[in-house]
């Protein structure tokens, strides 16, 4: 392809990436270094028939003038990143000095907002991602073995969790785990505890959020692996059968190596999706038990006081976290490509 043709070919996608990816990231990073201006407070003398009193009021004109002169706010440098709501270096150092051991230090760390959200986010990502890949793979293997007459309905029902809107799907599970729901009642019967409540237990709430995450994301992995199974060399499978290989050995030594590039692809997508978990926490009303980095950003932007700088700093730390998580997979993919 000629250079001019290549330029016009990539220009639209380049402009879109700059407009919707690069520029927003630059804007968020720059905003994270500025904090909002404080309101200008003045003392006003108010005199009446019973004497004079001093009252405090906000000078709206002076405040508006400062904000107009510096719309980003006042420069704070890295102060927002190191405050108690984010990396909290001072609080972490104090917790390390005053803790009686690693378990006590961990509990102190989980009392800090950012590390509490980071702890759940990493746990959710570390558990949901491999379970999603495994479940999607085994469902694909099972569906691929179904009779042709039943494959259509089986594939449809296997895709239902992904078709259902995330908010609706999580609300359905939320109602099911209620004490009056079928799952909540079943858990009470199994544990012989009529007072058991998933919504009141942090551990059970974490488990339910992860169960929902696997249930909702597994169909995506299933679709990818099922498509990959259609490209497996049948001659190789037949040769393995002639040599006496069992079904498990054919899957292990023929199918799995063939699908490894797809495993990398699914892992990349799931790592990014799971690290920004948000909808289940809102639908399950689980913020008292579990908060993620995305929920922390939402919390900063909600309410009457919008903490734009705090949300921007959390967003930057989230981007850095995703980059760190993806780096091993990307490095491995690059090395495999370089060998070829």
UniProtKB/TrEMBL annotation:
Q: What is its main location?
A: membrane
Q: Where in the cell is it found?
A: Cell membrane
Keyword Repeat included in the entry's annotation: no
Q: Which residues form the ABC transmembrane type-1 domain?
A: 118-326
One Gene Ontology BP term is:
transmembrane transport
The UniProt entry lists membrane topology as: Multi-pass membrane protein
Give the UniProt entry's GO cellular component terms.
plasma membrane
Which domain of life does this protein belong to?
Bacteria
User: What parts of the sequence cross the membrane?
Assistant: 6-29, 117-143, 155-177, 204-229, 251-269, 310-331
Question: A Pfam family name for this chain?
Answer: BPD_transp_1
Per UniProt, the keywords (alphabetical) are: Cell membrane, Membrane, Transmembrane, Transmembrane helix, Transport
Q: Which family does it belong to?
A: Belongs to the binding-protein-dependent transport system permease family.
The protein's name in its UniProt record: Carbohydrate ABC transporter membrane protein 1 (CUT1 family)
